[in-house]
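Thread: Modeling a multi-component assembly for a lab meeting

Hi all, long-time lurker, first post. My supervisor asked me to bring a structural picture of a complex we are working on to next week's group meeting, and I have zero experience with this. I have the sequence lines for every component (1316 residues in total). Could someone generate the structure of the whole assembly? Inputs are pasted exactly as I received them:
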Amino acid sequence: MNLRTDLAVELLDQFSKKTKVKEEVIDSVKITSVLIAKEDAVKIGKADGHYMTLEFGDIRDNNISKKVIDILKDKLKLFVKNKNKILIVGLGNDKSTPDALGPLTLKYILVNAPLIDMGYSNDSVKTYAFEPSVMGKTGIETSDIIKLLTSHIKPDLVLIVDALASSSIERLNHTIQINNVGIMPGSGVGNKRKEITKNNLGVDIVALGVPTVVDSATIVSDTIDYMYKYFAYNKKELDNPASKLKTGLPNYKNYDITINEDEKKALMGMLGTLDNEELKSLMIEVLNPIDSNLMVTPKEIDEIVLILAKIIGTSINLAFELNVTNYLD
Amino acid sequence: MNLRTDLAVELLDQFSKKTKVKEEVIDSVKITSVLIAKEDAVKIGKADGHYMTLEFGDIRDNNISKKVIDILKDKLKLFVKNKNKILIVGLGNDKSTPDALGPLTLKYILVNAPLIDMGYSNDSVKTYAFEPSVMGKTGIETSDIIKLLTSHIKPDLVLIVDALASSSIERLNHTIQINNVGIMPGSGVGNKRKEITKNNLGVDIVALGVPTVVDSATIVSDTIDYMYKYFAYNKKELDNPASKLKTGLPNYKNYDITINEDEKKALMGMLGTLDNEELKSLMIEVLNPIDSNLMVTPKEIDEIVLILAKIIGTSINLAFELNVTNYLD
Amino acid sequence: MNLRTDLAVELLDQFSKKTKVKEEVIDSVKITSVLIAKEDAVKIGKADGHYMTLEFGDIRDNNISKKVIDILKDKLKLFVKNKNKILIVGLGNDKSTPDALGPLTLKYILVNAPLIDMGYSNDSVKTYAFEPSVMGKTGIETSDIIKLLTSHIKPDLVLIVDALASSSIERLNHTIQINNVGIMPGSGVGNKRKEITKNNLGVDIVALGVPTVVDSATIVSDTIDYMYKYFAYNKKELDNPASKLKTGLPNYKNYDITINEDEKKALMGMLGTLDNEELKSLMIEVLNPIDSNLMVTPKEIDEIVLILAKIIGTSINLAFELNVTNYLD
Amino acid sequence: MNLRTDLAVELLDQFSKKTKVKEEVIDSVKITSVLIAKEDAVKIGKADGHYMTLEFGDIRDNNISKKVIDILKDKLKLFVKNKNKILIVGLGNDKSTPDALGPLTLKYILVNAPLIDMGYSNDSVKTYAFEPSVMGKTGIETSDIIKLLTSHIKPDLVLIVDALASSSIERLNHTIQINNVGIMPGSGVGNKRKEITKNNLGVDIVALGVPTVVDSATIVSDTIDYMYKYFAYNKKELDNPASKLKTGLPNYKNYDITINEDEKKALMGMLGTLDNEELKSLMIEVLNPIDSNLMVTPKEIDEIVLILAKIIGTSINLAFELNVTNYLD
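Re: Modeling a multi-component assembly
Sure thing. I ran the full set together rather than chain by chain. Output:
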């Protein structure tokens, strides 16, 4: 995974008021739309533009996946309207399951450019699709391949599908991000050559990504946050005689509670004084020198990434009103 | 992954003196041989018998994988000597990468039973191979399928290959365990029906497994242990003026140091008083109610599991002195 | 492909009047139902019983595949009525595309036995599924594996899915055969051990097969038959002045015409006196000693076998009224 | 399969004396080297240049495949000498087994360009690899993609690997062709845009292909030729009393015998007066209007194409003296 974006939604608290944020919930799918202002973009090392995330439950549930297709298709239309010649790029390594989302999605995309050219289709949107593979397998910079194809095909939109890294275990495989900015490697690196952006390609871009991997440092810092909630929940319940009758702990994650600073310090000592980001930084500091900050993916990734590819492929076909097959039915 | 063993080597400190432990290092591969005594076996909910582990570096390094084949072949011979009719069983789900070790290994095994019967081979060991798949796909108890085949083929040894869960991030994909006991589901469960053991099959058994997944609770507790080492190392170095000249942190994991109890408490408060097992239990308590104790696997699992399958398949062929192909050359 | 049936429909002209034949056409799918009488069965080296074939156009056409599902589901119901506990067996080698129909079909079958046992499903038909692989990979006779599982599960029906050999290029990938007889290896061989039949298993059986391979001798003899038609068509058209205005040759295969014996002899000499079966025998005589009677499959087999698996899997789910997904939509 | 070459070796009898032909046999592998003169090239609708074929037995025999690697490596060196920067292109559709030779071969190629750039390798030849997929999946002309990459990477050699169509069943999967001309679509078509040649790319090219498919018309005409040999052999043997003692027919294909014109006419009537090419043309005339001139591949294609990919990949690595792995050992 060479080219990675973080999820903008994970950076909400770093933005000024110039950045516009809108949230809505449709059919239990939470949609967050963020228009990042230029000054905020600079601060987080990203480009300014429109970032939208859909957050949802377990897409292995057929009802949830159908809802996601419905919403994703509608939201995608906002990003691609008035575009008629599209190059769809599936980034990633098809032989590495958590990185195969892009290549797998292409399997479900209807490519109609030759059909239209030969008069066999009258779709109004013309589609091309390409899988540039990864530099480790080709020796060629992925962004260069996309630039070459873009200059040749001259699409009015490049639509990128990619697997991302998550900075929260909660969003892992439970979030789709769409942006009109493209893909930039690690903030502040300033490696312009590897960017896949409107600037770099000279054509409008939409990037569609799902976080499929997370690092160990995030697992640790997120778990410690859950632990605070867990103790807060238990404390509250101890004061509540009614709760003694219940068996089993509820999904306390949904409660917006935590323990106070003193309690954190008693529980976790010096580490109790750190916030989630600081904790994560400490864990990275600990794990990196011993090569143990593993990037991991849930063991069910094969099944999940296949369903995600079907969802995204179907939604793209629907958004462009192609002669469509819904691969989930 | 229905049927899982833990690694015996991870339980060393729970054993009495009746359990014999022998350690050796060959070509930087660490071999631990544990003869678990009956009373210790009962305590940990396992069967008594011989458990051996090989621990090694990154098997994506061709030099390391060749050494592992060499050693595994020799060690395996100790477990299978005087056996002439072998049923090799690849447990797991071939469509789920971290669980596909068993099915993938079978691809590299030379099955010669029909060749011997037709006079085309004069191998002295006769091999059969079978992939029982998983209950979610067949509806049939895996142990029942193996029992049926065993009663039909009447081998003098059943050799099982399986992916395991690890209780340490260090051993994840870096350990192969061999035992002469078979596979038993979770300790204490007493579900005799699901056992794949000599008792259950009525024939000698050897189980060969690699831990390919680990849970989040383990990642947290292991990371906290690393953190103690990290602080201990830093403290030691602060007192050592020479170290100020060095840049970068060494792989301090190899140092057998930690901080003292008071320091742990200052650093980690109440949690600083818990040992690794207690910490892990607490994390399970925290993560389970919110369905967040993910079983995860490194993102490179596709490449790793393929190499592991080649290593194990080749070693089995060599251990039985079959007309052999080394799939790693 | 160890265990193969021919298509009963290809043997129609060898049957006496005791064998009942019924033909119908639904939505341009031709259905032939043959109740083979005992004496005819003996003659052709098959078992007596009910053989039905569906013949259709190119299933890569979504309209055709949907019709086939509709009809196959209905016809299958006739074969499986009043059965409540089903073992579905996918025969063949999943690593050999033209032989992978059985294993691929299982991917689409809903296995509900554990769900019903745990109370998560109230389907009235209970399904198990199994892939016995092939003897070359397991060393174990496929029919033995099925017998073992049948004796263990005690289903009231075993449903086999398999890829067949065709004795006509026209039916290759264009025919599904259902029978209530099972699968018997080559006629007259009398190898009872390899049979997969009611007799052998002690339980009712339905076999569902598609011919995916054909041998070179058949390609030659069928092409010579086409040539006769071709010349007959051309001769007829030469006498018809109107036809001179047309360009291109129509699909003359549908015309029931041929040239007469003298014309055949002028055209094809001694070979012109042989019928299709005799020609094929001659070609086998010619090709076998030089190992050139290749079994071949169309180059598009990967796409075709995948669609066939979806069609058959979906039809089985529908026939048993399982909580169904139609994988073709 | 959009872009196909025939095998030059199949056109030997159409060449004038200006075309130089050299034959040798090494370890039972027959090597034919053809330097096609310009005027002959024009006649057959190909480019002038060097075409070499290796013909061998069944590459599923490990001894044969090792010999082929040894010879192919040496011959390839003649074609690539003094080249230091190579773009290797795997043509074809990775999801269609008989067309997957190119993509599969890339799996075994060592790509070292980034390693050399980062100082991790000191191979003297720098390799890049690319899989342009097929127009049906991308919407983009394959030759355009290769041209774009060539202009970007500026290699001094483009090495193409592709699956071909055979015009003889004997060469199917038993021949590797190397040329320094590239790939041109069907003779006489004059579709310059689709050519992948030195002319078109502006850089030296070597194309490496194996015929994996054959059409039905070829199967018919080749079988009729075999039949002539078969009758010639039988007739000769009838006159030879000694042969009556033998059982079984030998592989008469190796005998350079046939029956005379009168015998052909008696046996095959009018068709007996046609040569192999005329017969094939007639069969195409017969089969095309009824869509029955199937392109077919042997049913064992999955296994064969995988071995061919390993052979070619290993030979390329060896020819460039890369830090090599022989994937067949």
